[in-house]
């Protein structure tokens, strides 16, 4: 048997590669289009909760992207109290394999990948589902994925006003300061949900609640807005879906099951179902179903996180790393 080597990219390697906004978006758009065309396999995520007292759990995401010739499995921990230790809330590892033989191909630190690909799916959703002239963003949450939500959305829309809020003052103030530095524009930091999201053109809810609580009120959402709630614990009212002209998800297979997710109660109540669902985002990206068709449409996107996005971003990082001679090769067998 010929020697088998694994490419390894750690957090420092991924930081050094410094993927551009356009490189990130291109990778995610490619994977979404492949999903829409039926060129992928995605298994609903599964969870491992070691002990409820730890206030966290592991997500295991699995998928295959035929155009990339890769299968992948990502394991990511999601622990809400990690900030007390100076850690990000999520740590992850992405494993990539040859889908024809099962031979391991790569191991990547998936912490930054998770943040970037989540923000990219939010942005790709907005590209197809938000009003083209959207100029006000209201964003709840300040964790790692939040940064990439705002950065990549602003890359596409160049907002006139960006409002942010999170529960802890030190968290939201630091978030606002980082965004101001990196985006070169004023960020409005609010001390409450209403001032952050009311009448915004695009509303993103990425809160970190310990238990479901309807913090985002349906009455604050203006007609024609694009709304993206994706917190692990629901922070929206049951009436939110009632005002939507289109309901879109990243993958219905994983959105319709499980106990976690921002619209779990809406699925259980029948408000989000195969009958009320407009499309999966990949179908829209692939041109198989329409996205926004008028400025008056109020549209919701719920994305739970796609293994396909992790695989696509991992693949893009590996290609750039090879060209830049960054990373390590490990002997496997």
TrEMBL record:
The entry lists its GO molecular-function terms as: ornithine cyclodeaminase activity
Q: Which SUPFAM superfamilies match?
A: NAD(P)-binding Rossmann-fold domains
What EC number(s) has UniProt assigned to this enzyme? 4.3.1.12
What's an example GO cellular component term for this entry? Answer: cytoplasm
Question: Which InterPro entries does the annotation name?
Answer: NAD(P)-bd_dom_sf, ODC_Mu_crystall, ODC_N
A Pfam family annotated for this chain is OCD_Mu_crystall
Keywords attached to this Swiss-Prot or TrEMBL record, sorted alphabetically, are: Lyase, NAD
**Keyword NAD belongs to the record:** yes
Family listed: Belongs to the ornithine cyclodeaminase/mu-crystallin family.
Question: What name does the UniProt record give this protein?
Answer: Ornithine cyclodeaminase
Question: What is the organism of origin for this protein?
Answer: Rhizobium wenxiniae
């Amino acid at each position: 048997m010929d020697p088998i080597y694994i490419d390894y990219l750690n957090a420092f390697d991924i930081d050094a590669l410094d993927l551009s906004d356009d490189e990130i978006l291109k990778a995610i758009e490619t994977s979404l289009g492949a999903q829409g065309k039926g060129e992928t396999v995605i298994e609903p995520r599964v969870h491992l909760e070691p002990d409820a007292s730890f206030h966290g759990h592991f997500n295991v995401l699995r998928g295959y992207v035929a155009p990339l010739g890769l299968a992948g499995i990502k394991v990511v921990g999601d622990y809400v109290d990690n900030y007390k230790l100076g850690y990000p809330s999520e740590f992850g590892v992405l494993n990539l394999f040859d889908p024809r033989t099962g031979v391991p191909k790569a191991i990547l630190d998936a912490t930054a990948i998770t943040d970037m690909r989540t923000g990219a799916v939010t942005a790709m959703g907005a590209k197809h589902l938000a009003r083209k002239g959207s100029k006000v963003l209201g964003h709840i949450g300040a964790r790692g994925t939040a940064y990439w939500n705002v950065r990549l959305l602003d890359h596409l829309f160049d907002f006139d006003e960006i409002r942010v809020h999170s529960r802890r003052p030190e968290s939201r103030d630091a978030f606002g300061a980082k965004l101001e530095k990196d985006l070169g524009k004023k960020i409005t930091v609010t001390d409450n949900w209403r001032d952050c999201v009311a009448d915004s053109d695009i509303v993103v809810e990425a809160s970190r609640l310990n238990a479901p609580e309807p913090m985002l009120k349906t009455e604050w959402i203006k007609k024609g807005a694009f709304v993206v709630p994706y917190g692990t614990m629901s922070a929206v009212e049951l009436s939110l879906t009632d005002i939507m002209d289109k309901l879109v998800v990243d993958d219905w297979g994983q959105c319709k099951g499980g106990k976690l997710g921002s619209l779990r109660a809406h699925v259980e109540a029948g408000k989000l179902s195969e009958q009320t669902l407009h499309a999966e985002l990949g179908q829209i990206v692939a041109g198989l179903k329409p996205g926004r068709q008028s400025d008056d449409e109020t549209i919701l996107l719920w994305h739970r996180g796609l293994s396909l996005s992790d695989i696509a971003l991992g693949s893009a990082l590996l290609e750039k790393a090879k060209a830049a001679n960054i990373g390590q090769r490990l002997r496997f067998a």
